[in-house]
């Protein structure tokens, strides 16, 4: 399996968008155009000394001159956000993946409801921008710690002035509390499409409230895993294409073993959230630990995320 060729880019602009959130604008290093993308897409960024991280594309869908990212400084993170906040400089060269989209917008929905917490607004901004440009009906409920913490506030204000759009802010410091996620979901029209991105507790409430709805109308994206990775080991991964059998020892993930064997498997978050490392399973029963596959996809047992999932069978054959 070969990863898509990386795209060389330059940092064109760095701008503080709100307390703890920096806006990063990227352009192609030879000034040519970038690939177009759809609302909800993200790119994987190869960060010096910090590996690969996935960040949502904030700008208008279809933009090809530059890409814009919104990156929150995470004190307990793995170094990616710290690099952008402390070390990144205009003119720095980076490599990114082509845009990917696992959080797509349904553009022709009669109404779209968005629920976000803090930096969770970033993947929703391109969706809202797209709906605003189409004149579609949408509503955003955004929870933040204080008014200085609203990412891309000017852009949100611009979208809120368009016909058919509405922004509701919940500011903890002002005593406005938090959105009642379950009430918002349960009161939404059956044909409305609902989107959520934010803290785990918010998404958990959103998913639970949406169980009575058609699954096709409930969309969400997580930033962190909800289950511990499978690292017990003690099973074998067979590569279907060349027949090799690789032992997975305790303390290592399937992805670790594949990379150690010299296989070029694409990956990014290493938490089972982004879907970059998805592999087809031909035989065996995976021990699913990801937050990416749907319940139906898990039940089918024909795919897994090797960065975090293991095996319930002694042997697992994958399409490599």
Task: Note down, in words, how this protein is organized.
The protein is an alpha/beta fold. A six-stranded antiparallel beta sheet has the order 4-3-6-1-2-5. The protein has a five-stranded parallel beta sheet with strand order 9-8-7-10-11, sandwiched between helices. The protein has helices spanning 80-86, 122-134, 153-160, 181-187, 200-209, 254-260, 295-300; strands spanning 7-18, 21-28, 42-47, 51-56, 66-72, 93-96, 112-117, 138-144, 165-171, 193-197, 218-221, 235-239, 245-248, 279-283, 286-287, 303-304, 310-311, 315-318. Strand 10 (193-197), helix 5 and strand 11 form a beta-alpha-beta unit. Helix 4 (181-187) packs parallel to helix 5 (200-209).
Brief account:
This protein has helices at 80-86, 122-134, 153-160, 181-187, 200-209, 254-260, 295-300, and strands at residues 7-18, 21-28, 42-47, 51-56, 66-72, 93-96, 112-117, 138-144, 165-171, 193-197, 218-221, 235-239, 245-248, 279-283, 286-287, 303-304, 310-311, 315-318. With 320 residues, the chain is an alpha/beta fold.
Number of domains: 3
Beta-strand fraction estimate: 25-35%
- In the sheet with the most strands, the strands line up as 4-3-6-1-2-5
Compute the gyration radius: what is it?
20 Å
Helix content: 10-25%
In whole angstroms, how far apart are the ends? 6 Å
Number of helices: 7
The CATH architecture of the largest domain can be given as 3-Layer(aba) Sandwich
CATH superfamily of the largest domain: Nucleotide-binding domain of ferredoxin-NADP reductase (FNR) module
Instruction: Work out the number of β strands.
Output: 18
Low-confidence stretches: none
Main β-sheet, in a few words? 6 strands, antiparallel
Mean pLDDT: 89
Indicate the CATH class of the largest domain. Alpha Beta
Structural class: alpha/beta
Q: In one word, what is the shape?
A: globular
CATH topology of the largest domain: Rossmann fold
